[in-house]
Predict the structure.
Amino acid sequence: MKLPSRRTCLWAAAALALIAYAPYLYWAKVEYRLLTVDGKLYRSAAMPPEKLLDVVDELGIKTVIDLRTPGPEVDAENAVLTNAGIEHLNLPSGTTPDPHEWEPVLEVMKNRNEPILFH
């Protein structure tokens, strides 16, 4: 019996790695890492404003808290959400944010303007 060649083994290993990685890739790129906590709090990666508007409509989200640094993408998202009547709060956050920066977020959560999406 002849053993498989090194090339065949490498192709098989690459195929297995791709199969193992595919579910994560789908979750990260297609579902934008969307996670739910009791239908009241959502977390996702950044997504195109039009896709975000679809997600917001589908889930009934009332508030989006954006943790990215201000820029054209954040401005475009703000315009789309504000036009749709969704509250948009941009709170740029480093790895260790100042506690005072979180006061607007706590205020939104106290007012129970749920569901809320963080990204």
Remarks:
- The longest strand covers residues 63-66.
- The chain has a mean pLDDT of 82.
- The chain is about 45% helix and 15% strand.
- The CA atoms of residues 41 and 116 lie 5 Å apart.
